[in-house]
Amino acid sequence: MQKFDHEKLKVYQKSIQFVDWSTDLLSCVPKSCAVYNQFDRASTSIPLNLAEGNGKYTSADRCRYFDIARGSALECAACLDVLIAKEAVSDEKVLEGKEILVEIVSMIVGLIRSNSKDRTV
After folding, report:
1. Which pLDDT does position 118 carry in this prediction?
2. Domain 5-115 part of CATH 1.20.1440.60
3. Angle, to 10 degrees, between the axis of helix 10-26 and the axis of helix 34-54?
4. At the N or C end, where does the chain have fewer CB atoms within 10 A?
């Protein structure tokens, strides 16, 4: 089966893994909790922006979308902190998600640096 270029990216694959993980986590969180929708949107935004950015022709365009994906990953980390503060999830579960996010952010930073030699991120 032929794949799209973005599907070959390890960071894209890891972000899809995070979406799956976050879906499981959100099944334990009441939908009435304000952070529920924010977390769902932010986690979904990571792979969508990676895919869109990877399809752009200029490095500046690619980096713009990779920056958005990185921001969404950081937003997810903040959402996890809010879920802990609201006692909606356990610390152990959140640590698992943050470990995935650290990997994702590191890989996105690598993508940004490889596409823009003058960026320090």
Report:
1. 77
2. yes
3. 170
4. N
